[in-house]
Design goal:
Elements lengths: L4 E9 L5 H5 L4 E9 L10 E14 L3 E14 L18 E14 L4 E13 L10 E12 L21 E11 L9 E13 L4 E12 L1 H7 L7 H4 L1 E12 L2 E12 L8 E12 L2 E10 L2 E12 L1
Amino acid sequence: RHVQAWEIDFAEMTVGKKRWQWSYAYPVCGAALFYSSLGNTDILGEVYAIIPYVDFPLVRGTKNSLLFRFGTGLSWFTRTFHRINNYKNTAIGSHINAAISLQLAGDIALSKRLSFRPGFSFIHFSNGATKVPNYGINLVAANAGFSYQLIAPNGDYITYPPLHIKPRPEFFTIGSFTVKEIFPVGGKKFFVGNLAFDVRSMFTKHFFAGAGIDLTYDASDREVLSRTGKDITNIETLKYAVNLHGGVRLGRLDLCLHAGGYIHQKDDSDGWVYDKITATYNFYGPWLINLTLKTHFARADFVSAGLGFKL
């Protein structure tokens, strides 16, 4: 079936009150109210979401622009898996899920305030394995809409002198924690803890890159191995891994993609390669708050939150 979706956005054009806004050519910051019938309401139900986002100008002309959107928020599904009443819904196991939105859109001016917005979008819904089943839902769509500016733009933007970047190492230590479930459905929750040591450096005014070490304790590994007749200690459960990463810095916020491999693990049922998407915010002095999504070949392993510091 065709999937229908509707979205209402509320946004504000930045004018350079912070240096990163000028650095990224004055992006648009906003929040989207999203709804979709998902094409099969009897099984999948409907989804409602609130997704804060940033629209980055890739190309900006005098009248028309090409924008890239990144957003992340929370969603509510009206129907979830139930072993008797809705056993065919193996995609969503919980009502509350994370939502990650990517979009490439044009902004074609029709008047000083009104513009036409055609584009392509991708939205992923998942609970990060906090409750199974959790195969997730991906929506890939062509979309079109209109944008109207309540306040006419006056072109009064704040500019800054050029920033000369000298690569300088920054050291991050971050601890994060969560719980997760594994199959079969209805089992207990398992504790997961991760300690990350990263070193990174800014190489341009936008991008940084670096390398890191991950130490992960996942209590579900002991359960998986015990089902095959293997018994391991808590120390043996610890996973050691290394990764390379890169990302963008928006003021105090780092958005980063990590690609890594395990050096040591007792349970290799998920393979030896992993990915992480992290958001790290420097909220006070050296102190950080962190949100991490870890996956194995696009299949969510866990979502964790934690604290850290940088030097």
